[in-house]
Design goal:
alpha/beta; 319 residues; binds S-adenosylmethionine; globular; TIM Barrel
Length: 319
């Protein structure tokens, strides 16, 4: 499926829940409340969307949230998705707290890759930033995921001036044996009014300059080319990536749609235009009708994002 700017749309990020076992400061802006479970898509409903998406040429899927691993029977759902003909990639984004428990069953169910979000390796900062004392669980989750064979494991870190700028070396150390790739991500201003965002923001440009004073970075172009990250080999260490989601625009290569936990299809994180698929699914709309609506939506995928247009947080839309 192509949009009006000839971008090939082949990637769907699916938020399986808006709930999370963390409340990270930059993600959940207070006040917030979760939706009741009847307004969240059932697995059967999501599966139908996946099947329809496959007929439209979408063959890469990522499960996210909220925290996907807190939804009951996720591994069983992974198995069902993975058994569909045409699935090329099925991955998961998680905070890792429950990975020790689920890594094995997810692997057996056919999950291919995991991205894990971790912003600090210090217990006190983790507690402050994520509002939970759970760093130990995340670290055991990482260990288990690597043991089970989710290699390379991508660790995503949102760079925050007062929280982790002093920990970058520790994260780089993680990459040494090439089993972990660390990706540094620019903090996105989900609510521009908040001075907190402005104060914490560190650009990829600033971070790269800082790193170049200490390390030798060589851009790696031939691997991991899909997606917005730029990858570098660090001499004597492994691979790191940078995602400058605020200061750079990747829209010209955007191949993604998002299915929100509340059942809407979004062509752009930063644009409120959505298709209410849940309503259609629950009104017994036929596949052809849904397909046509999706095509109409994709045609309207904005050429470029406008950073001010969304007041919805990642936990609602799906990070
Ligand atoms: N719970 C899962 C996790 O923690 O990976 C999936 C959902 S979470 C919303 C997905 C990603 O969104 C996390 O890596 C998180 O750091 C990122 N995120 C949330 N708010 C963000 C913000 N304001 N700027 C940049 N990344 C953000």
């Amino acid at each position: 499926m192509k949009d009006q700017f000839s971008r090939k749309i082949n990637y769907l990020r699916i938020s399986v829940t808006d709930r999370c076992n963390l409340s990270c400061q930059y993600c959940k802006l207070y006040p917030f409340s979760f939706r009741d479970s009847s307004s969240i898509l059932s697995y059967e409903e999501i599966l139908r969307v996946v099947k329809i998406s496959l007929t439209l040429g979408i063959n890469k899927f990522r499960l996210t949230g909220g925290e996907p691993l807190i939804r009951k029977d996720l591994a069983k759902f992974v198995r069902k998705v993975n058994s569909l003909k045409g699935i090329e990639d099925l991955s998961l984004t998680t905070n890792g707290i429950l990975l020790k428990k689920y890594a094995k069953s997810l692997k057996e169910a056919g999950l291919k890759r995991i991205n894990l979000s971790l912003d600090t390796l210090k217990e006190d900062k983790f507690k402050l930033l994520c509002r939970k004392d759970a760093l130990k669980d995340v670290l055991s989750g990482i260990k288990e995921a690597l043991k089970i064979g989710f290699v390379p494991l991508k660790i995503n870190l949102v760079v925050l001036r007062d929280f982790n700028l002093d920990e970058i070396d520790d994260f780089i150390n993680f990459t040494k044996d090439f089993r972990v790739i660390v990706r540094f991500i620019e903090l996105m201003p989900f609510n521009e009014e908040l001075n907190w965002f402005k104060r914490q923001f560190v650009s990829v440009k600033e971070l790269k300059e800082k790193l170049r004073r200490k390390y030798i970075l060589t851009e790696v172009k031939d691997i991991y080319t899909a997606g917005p990250a730029k990858y570098y080999k660090i001499k004597d260490f492994g691979i790191i990536g940078f995602i400058a989601g605020v200061n750079e625009c990747f829209c010209q290569d955007c191949n993604r749609l998002r299915l929100t936990s509340y059942g809407s299809l979004r062509p752009c994180l930063w644009n409120k235009n959505e298709l209410n698929l849940k309503e259609m699914l629950r009104a017994y709309a036929g596949d052809q009708e849904i397909i046509q609506k999706i095509k109409d939506l994709v045609i309207c995928k904005p050429k470029e994002r406008k950073l001010t247009q969304s007041q919805v947080s990642m936990w609602e839309v799906g990070g």
